[in-house]
Amino acid sequence: MKKWVFLSCVLAALLLAAGFLPLVAPDLPENAPVVPAAVDRAGVYYRENAVATAAAADIVMEQSGYVLSAGNENVRLGMASTTKIMTALLAIELLEPEAVVTVPKEAVGIEGSSIYLIEGEQITVSDLLYGLMLESGNDAATALAIAAGGTVEHFVAMMNERAAELGLEDTHFSNPHGLSADDHYTTAYDLARLTCAALENETFAEIVSCKTKTISDGKRYLSNHNRLLRSYEGCIGVKTGYTIATGRTLVTAAERDGLTLVAVTLNDRSDWADHTKLLDYGFANYESVALEGVSDMPLPVVGGIAESVSVSAPDGTVVLPKGQTVTRRLVMPQFIYAPVEQGDVLGYAEYYCNGERIAVEPLTAVSSVEVRRLSFWERLFG
């Protein structure tokens, strides 16, 4: 009997060593590195009121979100027809351009600027969008809102939902055209961010950069109200606006030397001149600087079928005052434990200028590494 007990103990020890019996393992360190704090793009080399304007609020922003100069940029003000930037973006996202809209009576005779739609008229979504953004047609805005949302009220709710998705915390819409209302407001900062997002849509960018357009089978000739499209080098749009209560509002975008800038002024009697100054300041003082990424850098792996895994970070860009130098610092562990999944974030590439962290990119695993399973004899004899 003692012999069998002894043999059972030996067999159990062998099975345990070979990994066939469960063994409680100590906790291993987590592979995930500590996530560094995000870079506030509004605070990287931002200069308050670097450009003096006559506006109640102004801003010039690079398209990826870097603020170059601003004044009263977070003050809530009316936006007038620059509202139509959101109207156009939503309509483009929700409707097919060649879809035909039957003009409802609600869209006829709207106060303010118009393309003079007729009740029952059939017109394409594309033509309505050009009428909206070139001639600032309030009737086109209403027709698009009903076509996309079923009712104006539902479309306005969708506008506010989209604003929330974009993080526009100080923006609220009460209509799709921009006629003044107490609960219809934005800030220069929010409006610039909205425009940057809208310009990423190719259809939107094409429409707002158009100087003239004939629509409705040649029956309507449209001319863009934004005079900077004709007078400012590199101008690519975007939208004018005016009501008596709100004053003159203007959003302009321009491209030069790989840099896309968006300027916004709210309640500005000298908007054309001020936009020229804002854009000139940005192009004269800032440039897009390349950030070197990381390509297939090996990181040792413990307990895996491979001894290491490659990590990579994409190339990037940052907007800085001209003539600055950027340095890179890699934040990653000395080794990691298997398993590793492709795409796991295993570290970070941090970029600095004059001692200030200006950008962060994740270092991700290029491939997966499974846990190495030891053989019976490796487990038994180590």
Low-confidence segments, given as residue ranges, are: 4-29
Task: Give the number of DSSP strands.
Answer: 18
| Level-2 CATH architecture of the largest domain | 3-Layer(aba) Sandwich
Strand content: 25-35%
Strand order of the largest sheet: 1-3-2-10-9-8
End-to-end distance: 31 Å
The pLDDT mean sits at 88
Structural class: alpha+beta
Q: What is the molecular shape? A: globular
What's the structural domain tally?
2
Total helices: the number is 10
**How much helical structure, as a percent, in the residues?**
25-40%
- The ordered string of helix (H) and strand (E) elements is HEEEHEEHHHHHEEHEEEHEEEEEEEEH
Rg is: 29 Å
Q: In CATH, what is the homologous superfamily of the largest domain?
A: DD-peptidase/beta-lactamase superfamily
Any key phrases for this structure?
382 residues; alpha+beta; Beta-lactamase; 2 domains; six-stranded mixed beta sheet; 10 helices; 18 strands; 28% strand
Short description:
This protein is α+β, with helices and mostly antiparallel strands and 382 residues long. The protein has ten helices and 18 strands.
Structural features, described:
The chain is 28% helix and 28% strand. The chain has helices spanning 2-18, 84-94, 125-133, 138-149, 152-165, 188-199, 202-208, 228-231, 271-285, 376-381; strands at residues 47-48, 57-62, 67-71, 100-102, 122-124, 212-215, 220-223, 235-243, 247-256, 259-266, 286-291, 294-302, 308-313, 316-321, 327-331, 336-337, 345-353, 356-365. The chain is built from 10 helices and 18 strands. The radius of gyration is 29 Å and the shape is globular. By secondary structure, it is an alpha+beta fold. It has 2 domains: 47-288, DD-peptidase/beta-lactamase superfamily (Beta-lactamase), CATH 3.40.710.10; 292-382, D-Ala-D-Ala carboxypeptidase, C-terminal domain (Peptidoglycan synthesis regulatory factor (PBP3), Domain 2). It has a 6-stranded mixed sheet, sandwiched between helices.
